[in-house]
Design brief:
By secondary structure, this protein is α+β, with helices and mostly antiparallel strands. About 35% of the residues lie in helices and about 25% in strands. It binds flavin-adenine dinucleotide.
């Protein structure tokens, strides 16, 4: 990566002004992805000195600074207590500890990676993002915005919950990107389901959720119907990692297992 200038921002507003000043000025999180994906940056703006590396437990939510490493999140007790620890489980599937010590939650969210193992999880947990200019939005709203390239993600808030959760990543090798990934949570039998790496970006399976949440009791037939619905609404396609048909089989298989696991 070719960098003309490196600046350690002294305030978030300084970092914001710098990215606004030129399209080729870039914020760096952990840099694990940026360094292999971007050829040139006029000014590379570090957020390292802004106190954004923290996990803070409040009464109703857990607040995480954008510069917090994935490894810190993965091993944090409070994070593990949310939704059966699915965020920690999903992070655990990303490369090795060395990369997870470098990569940040901020960079993982701002990258808008379609293969992201975190996106399905963040969609089914109650997550809010705080941006310097945009303010606070839900993770679901963030997914629908094409790209927020000219703002700074400051923190991520996880609402405390006692929901049950399920996470699954299927990949050819332990270090590869997912062929599919999915996350499910249930609170009082109210389902949230998100499927990612289809290969398009993760989305909530809204019709499937609506169907499941309208049932008094779930039996095998209804669960099968929910899995068919999820495949129908997921906009599944082929790429080098897996065919559309194989992805459909994977989604049906693991969604069925996941639903059964969280209604136990
Ligand atoms: C070899 C490799 C394999 C990987 N495999 C997987 C995988 O299997 N599954 C998976 O889910 N992930 C995977 N990842 C992605 C990884 O988990 C991180 O999501 C990724 O490295 C980005 O985090 P980072 O801190 O390195 O961000 P950076 O590379 O520093 O930044 C990424 C983007 O976010 C922007 N950015 C960073 N922080 C902020 C902020 N606070 N505000 C605004 N913009 C910001 C940057 O400008 C850049 O555009 C992989 C990464 C690598 C390098």
């Amino acid at each position: 990566m070719e960098v003309n200038k490196f600046v350690e921002a002294k305030s978030i507003s300084e970092a914001y002004d710098l990215i606004k000043a030129d399209r080729l000025n870039k914020v760096i999180g952990g840099g694990a992805w940026l360094k292999i994906s971007m050829k040139k940056a006029k000014t590379l703006i570090s957020l390292d000195n802004l106190g954004l590396d923290y996990i803070k437990e409040e009464l109703d939510y857990i607040e995480v600074g954008a510069q917090t490493s994935l490894r810190k999140l993965e091993t944090n007790k409070s994070i593990k207590s949310l939704s059966s620890g699915i965020l920690s489980k999903a992070i655990n599937h990303i490369m090795g500890i060395t990369i997870r010590n470098i990569a940040t939650i901020g960079g993982s969210i701002m990258g808008k990676f379609a293969f992201s193992d975190l996106y399905p999880v963040l969609l089914v947990m109650n997550v809010k993002l705080t941006f310097f200019k945009l303010g606070e939005i839900s993770f679901e709203e963030y997914i629908d915005i094409p790209r927020v390239n000219d703002d700074i993600l400051v923190n991520i808030k996880f609402k405390k919950n006692d929901s049950l959760g399920y996470f699954k990543k299927v990949s050819k090798t332990a270090l590869d990107f997912a062929m599919i990934n999915m996350a499910i949570t249930t609170t009082n039998n109210n389902f949230k389901i998100a499927i990612g790496s289809k290969p398009s970006i993760a989305q909530l399976s809204k019709s499937t959720m609506k169907f499941l949440n309208s049932q008094d009791k779930l039996d095998d037939e209804k669960i099968e119907k929910a899995c068919d619905l999820a495949v129908e609404e997921s906009n599944i396609n082929s790429n080098v990692r897996a065919s559309k048909e194989y992805r459909e089989v994977l989604i049906k298989t693991y969604l069925k297992r996941g639903i059964k696991q969280v209604i136990k």
